[in-house]
Amino acid sequence: MTTIVEMPLRFDGQIKKIIDSRSEFKKKIKKSQIITYSVEFFSSCFLDDPRHMKGIHVRLYNLQQDQRPEINNYVISWEDIPRNDEEDWNNFQSKVNDQLEAFLFELKEHTNVVEGSL
Fold first, then answer.
1. For the chain, what are the domain ranges?
2. N or C: the chain end with fewer CB closer than 10 Å?
3. Is 85 left (phi over 0), alpha (psi -120 to 50) or beta?
C-alpha cells in the first residue's frame, strides 16, 4: 500500500546569481539532499552550428527543515562572464561554454546532481 502526502513547499522565489553569492551557494549545496540543474543553449538559425551553453539553472532541495522542503534557485549565465570589446561573438560564446562546462564539471565532482526537474 502506498500513501501519497502533499507537502507544502517553502520556496525562495528569488533566483540568485551564483557569481554574487558563491560562498552561500557552496554552504547551501552541503545542506541540500537533492540538486537539479537545467541547461540553456544559445540559439542559432543553422543546424550544423555547434551548441554552446548559455546558462545553467540550479535548484537545491533541503528536505530536513521543519518537515517542509526548502527550495533555492540559482543561475549562472553568459551575462556573468565579462566580454572584451574586441572579442568576436562566436569566440565569446565558446568562452562562455567552456566556463559553464568547467562549473558543471566541478558541481558534478563534489555533489550528486540530477539533470532536469523533479
1. 10-115
2. N
3. alpha
